[in-house]
Prior knowledge:
The protein is α/β, with parallel strands linked by helices and 418 residues long. 33% of the residues lie in helices and 21% in strands.
Amino acid sequence: MQPTRIVITGVGLTSPNGNTLEEYRKNLLDGVARIQMIDMRYMGSAGATGQVPAGVCDFDPKKHQTRKELRVGTRAGSIAIYAAREAIANSGIDFENYDKSRIGVYVGTTEHGNVETENEVYNISKFEYDTKFWTHHHNPRTVANNPAGEITINMGITGPHYTIGAACAAGNAGLIQALQMLRLGEVDLALAGGVSESIQSFGIFAGFKSQGALGSHPTDPNKVSRPFDKSRNGIVVSEGGCIYTLERLEDAQARGADILAEIIGYRINSDASDYVLPNPERQAECMRQALDVAGIKASEVDIVNTHATSTPMGDIQEIKAIREVFGDCPTTYVNNTKSYIGHCMGAAGALELAGNLPSFHDNIIHPTINVDELDPECAMTNLVINEPLKVDAVKVILNNSFGMLGINSALILQKFED
Length: 418
């Protein structure tokens, strides 16, 4: 028995270099990165405020939220609401007349609650740590389901909602969860993807700095994120979000939906070897298992979007895994998206997948940029560097997304053909 076919019918996003798929895609093809230096408390010398490179979104939260919602909610919630509303609009669904109890919301996050807790501790430090100045909004702001829950409140959705904690594999994991719930018949429509508010937290910058993994560049913040470049020295922390509408194929066709892609394969596995250092053997296994689920050969994949974060060892380990699976595939091309937008943490997988979706129609593969000198240990046939590549056809995309504690995910999409 063939599994129920699940398709993507809408996408909404906000990223450091675009607030619509069209704007985002144009900037990927034009080589436009938008990373800036921002002030961050405690990141200067002797604990003073310092500057760090970050990917910052400039969407208008008031487009879909009231002032009260913005006052009570979180930055992650605002990003999630914006992306979800835009996804619904993009899908063409008659949302007002849709049974809201049959909609599920599945949002991937790397972490949630750190921002709000850090801010409250900082605020009460001005009042000798008197907790009477601690906000009564803190608990609903910091529960793990917050970003997904804020979507349901804003949109009146009464079906299930929760967040998927999967480190930086969370964007893919949100989509996989949605697919599974649709196949089980738990929901008829899913809003799924990932969000990140990470740049609001000094702790994540301090943590990466203490690991020696916070990226820098002597002159240009837009060149800090440079996966595969020999001089790469760490990540750029970014915020962002991308939410998709997912439906069963028969439901999408019944309403005459424009189908953007079909999900045909996926896998999540674990390294079980290290807290931080990736395991290329397990990453290769994850990709192979996703191919098995899809029922296709490695040579049938046209684009592999890498997770590579611009860390010295992480990039090498992933390329080892990709060589193992795709080394003998002359028409499989490899690219990266973090070189434009930094690492959007829980949103990374979903956003990076979105950047590649238009390839199904324009047959253009966006490159990884900022590669001035390719690291020989990252060299691979068909690595698309610095300039877009036009190909005859793009029919299958594999999206890698990996995270700390050794969580790996691979998601495979196919150009929809009835």
